[in-house]
Amino acid sequence: MRFPAGILFTLWLIFGIQQTQAVYLNMSDMAFDDQYEGCIGEMENNISSLLAKEKQADPEFSSTWDAAEKRWKTKKPSVPSGFRDEYGIAIMAYSNKTSNLYSNFNSAVRNYSSRDTFHYHSLHFLMTRAVVLLRSSCRWSPRSVYRGMKGIYFEPKEIGVKVRFGQFSSSSTNQKVAEGFGNDTFFTFTSCFGAQIKKYSLYPGEEEVLIPVDEVFTVTNFTKQEGKNRFVLKTTKTRCHYYNCDYLNK
Hints:
There is one protein chain. The chain is α+β, with helices and mostly antiparallel strands. It has a single domain, classed as Toxin ADP-ribosyltransferase, Chain A, domain 1 (Alpha-Beta Complex), CATH 3.90.176. Helix content is 34%, strand content 21%. It has seven helices and ten strands. The strands form three sheets. A five-stranded mixed sheet has the order 2-6-10-9-4. The longest helix is centred in the N-terminal third of the chain and has 18 residues. It is globular, with a radius of gyration of 17 Å.
C-alpha cells in the first residue's frame, strides 16, 4: 500500500514511525506553493503586523525568530539590492535545526489546507522572497546539489515522472555533508532555482542550497542499493505553483 507523501512524511516526523512502506515522490499537490505574483507590494505592507501576530500565537516561532534577529544584527552579511533584513532573519530562523520551527513549518507547508489554518504566512512569504532574490538564473548551467534523508524511503512511480519536493528543501553542494543528514533516501540532482544561503545560514559549513517549493524536476534514474533508495533528478528549468496571493484572498 502506498500513502500520499506529505501525510506519511508528516506522521513519520511527528510520531517517529519506522518507515518501511514506499512513499511516492510526486508533484506534492497539497503543498503551499504561493509565489505572490502581483501582490508582493501589498504583502510587504502587511508583513510587520502579520509577523507580529503569528509570533504571538507561536512561542517557538517567536523565540527562534528573536534569536535569529539578534544574530542578524551582529553578523549581517552583504545582501543584494532589495533584500530586506526580514528575509535574512527568516532564513536564519529556518536554518536553526535546534528549534522545532524548521520541522513544524515544513509540515505545514507540505500539508496546506486553508488560509485560516496555516499559521506561517509571514515566514512563507519572507522565505519565498529571499529565495527569489538569492537564486541563480537558468540562463547559466544548473547547480549540482545533494540531499540526504534518514528514516524515510521515497520512490518514484516511474522513471521520467515530474516531481517537486513540496517544501523548502535543504541541499548541499558537498556530497559528504548531505550524506551526514541521512542515506535512506539520497538525491543527486541539478537545480536552477535553488538559492545558495551559506552566508545567511546558522551553519555555513553545510554549504546549503535552499530549494523552493515550486521547482519541478524529472526523475532520470532510481535504484535501490542495500536497502537505500537513490534518486537522480534533473531540473526541468520550470516552476509550478497552484496558489497565488492566497493570504489576500486574490
